[in-house]
Amino acid sequence: MITNSNIVLTGASSGIGLEVLKILVRGEGNKILAVSRNATKKLSGFGENVVIFDADISSAEGVDCVFDKAQEVFFGEKIDIFYANAGFPYYEEFNYVDWDRVEKMFNTNTLSPIYTYAKYLKHLDGRKGILAYTVSAIGQMAMPGYAIYSSTKFAMQGFQQAIRLEKPDNLQITCLYPVATETNFFKVANEVEFEKPFPVQRADVVARKMVKGIENGKKTVSPCVLFAVSKILMGICPPIRSIYWKLEGNKLERFKKRVKESSDK
Fold this sequence. Notes:
By secondary structure, this protein is α/β, with parallel strands linked by helices. It is 49% helix and 15% strand.
């Protein structure tokens, strides 16, 4: 159990972030800055040790604002754990020209957590700290329908790999690689209904394993055993991956038909 820690948690109002918050608030002596764009509307009843804060972390100014708020909430003390969990997907056929739409996702999913690393390192100033990221299994294997989302997570995968080679010893980095998780994640991915990728995990299960991984100093946390095993099998026998991609590609084709039917109405 993580205890007596000053913690910043982004993406705290739903999904994995909310389940992580529910666990961390039980730790004796923990003080938590719970951050999301609509935190004050969605979070309540967590007690005086949780400070709810509305912030959009998709810009440098937004991240700066979170660090400034943490200084205020923790009375200038160190942030022991910073969990950069916020992120969102698109599910779609990437067949359009829209720089701003692509940039919006990269700002939130990639540039923000990269900038957070630099800010947190400066904040620690040689003191021990823990930086946690939600990278995603899709950052290790791309999926049809998630071209932009996969790209943001592949970028984070490359960043965390590289930064481990140069980070100071005082910083622990723990990265989470969940498969599809039963959250509002899929509700924001597209307003047209679509089939979730296989397999799907519960958010509370993922959160428990992530918190345990942070506590135990793990570099990576892969909460789905099936995905870990499948990566090995796909490496040994690549046709298995091709079959899986074909099945997920069929889901995209069915989705594209629904999109067309919806637009024709």
